[in-house]
Amino acid sequence: MREVVCLALDIYRLAVFAWIILSWVRISSTHPLGRVVVFLDRIMYPVILPLRRIIPPVRLGGAMLDLSPVALLLGVSIVRGLVCR
To answer: Which of 9, 40, 78, 80 could form a disulfide with 19 if both were Cys (CB 3.0 to 4.6 A apart)?
Structure first.
């Protein structure tokens, strides 16, 4: 059972990285990757939105830097470290 949880946490961590990278590129919903983006949005937003309320984006000149995915990766890594010793 523990191995399954560890594998799920590893997959989720990879999904967070994929979501971050795909957020930098504009992809239309008709593109084959569009379905991937929709799926990743569905599994990320329930976790990211509460984090964004706690950790607001940081202003860098005219741009905003969202640190909530970094906090999510840190949290997943901590949970994985506790569960998968």
So the answer is: 40
**Span between the terminal Cα atoms of the chain, in Å:** 13
* Count: domains in the chain: 1
Tell the burial category of 33 from Cβ atoms under 10 Å away from its Cβ (0-12, 13-18, 19+): middle
**Partners of 77 in beta bridges:** none
What range defines the domain where residue 75 resides? 2-83
| % of the chain at pLDDT higher than 90 | 82
Predicted local distance difference test score (pLDDT) of residue 85: 83
The string of DSSP codes covering 23-60 is HTS---TTSHHHHHHHHHHHHHHHHHHHHHHHSPPEEE
What is the pLDDT of the chain when averaged over all its residues?
93
The enclosing H or E element of 64 equals strand 63-65
How far, rounded to the nearest angstrom, does the alpha carbon of residue 5 sit from its chain's CA centroid? 17
